Amino acid sequence: MKPRISMITLGVSDLQRSIEFYEKGLGFPRMDSPPGVAFFTLNGTWLGLYGRDALAEDALVDGAPGGFAGFSLAHNVISEREVDQVMAQAISAGAVVTKPAQKTDWGGYAGYFSDPDGYLWEVAHNPFFWVGPPDDNNLKSDC
Fold it and tell me: Considering the entire predicted model, what is its pTM?
């Protein structure tokens, strides 16, 4: 298996609300999608939104919502200023800040917000990586 993630699908409680959050609020480009699902193009992957219960049924798992899902999504940017701009855009779209943007102990600058269904997004400036899809060539030469 070649290591890659082709699509990230989030099981959402209110599809229309989540579409508005990602499309209108965050400005994600929406693709043509069949009813009951929404797809957005990202750099190097896609984001899918699908009803939480339907996604659980499709995967043959219990769809009861719980606490922390054990993962977060990340959006890396080129500067601390851009972290603040993305966080502000997310807030105006209805996101809830779970950790305000701040200096990190690893030398970067990052904050977290949650989307309408509680999925965590980290917005980070990592001075040790180039911005772009992660690969072996994205490490800065001075690391």
Answer: 0.81
